[in-house]
Amino acid sequence: xxxxxxxxxxxxxxxxxxxxxxxxxxxxxxxxxxxxxxxxxxxxxxxxxxxxxxxxxxxxxxxxxxxxxxxxxxxxxxxxxxxxxxxxxxxxxxxxxxxxxxxxxxxxxxxxxxxxxxxxxxxxxxxxxxxxxxxxxxxxxxxxxxxxxxxxxxxxxxxxxxxxxxxxxxxxxxxxxxxxxxxxxxxxxxxxxxxxxxxxxxxxxxxxxxxxxxxxxxxxxxxxxxxxxxxxxxxxxxxxxxxxxxxxxxxxxxxxxxxxxxxxxxxxxxxxxxxxxxxxxxxxxxxxxxxxxxxxxxxxxxxxxxxxxxxxxxxxxxxxxxxxxx
Length: 326
Ligand SMILES: [Zn+2]
Prior knowledge:
single chain, 12 helices, extended
């Protein structure tokens, strides 16, 4: 095994870390979008596009400055181009195998595959999910159903082929037969090695660096660590009941029990409740927009944590429905 190359285990860890970023950000955004829907619902709707743009900018910075992606740089790795190059020595032209730094084209290719590729996969996944949903709707014509079925099958086959290929490359990497750990790096002829960094204080002496550049570099280089820390903190905060001590005044309204049904001011909406089937008594509206009897939905969310009609999971079941004042 080449001592310069990180182990397969390190690569798997890196991929796991990389794959955690987007869902973690989405989780945080969903949490706050529920609290401030007016401002954040639009951001939530275009999350994929926003994430693509943000990751493009961040990764562009890291590739340009450090020859590595953000996570690779944090692990102290760098990228090298591996390939054959024509070298002319007198009359003879020799092809030599070289390892060199990435040039601008290599960086652009890596940047696009790193950011655009996952974005397209997410969009394709969404399309396939909506196609399979359409397949189950009644009244779909036979040729259409056949076409949808074929597309879904083909997509799944392509995906599993890609995964098998990735695993073959990983096993070859583990055995020392290749320098690449995934299909894209194999196509781009890029490998990852431990970075041999010189002390940054020595190399930066030649040109004075402005305070704003220093601040930008500091934020970009420590941002991810701060993000992971904030995520852990948020997780711990939500797992414990600390927030209840601070937000008592906000939740008193939803904690009110249903009004007594024997009173003269009792009212109903005239339509039937989808949980109990009878006419809605003391209506309560769920965040998904559906109205049920208060006791019915209270009992339902405490057991199921999702909307009874749409099956959309509820992030915070206890505060996801309100009494409806007609
Ligand atoms: Zn009911």
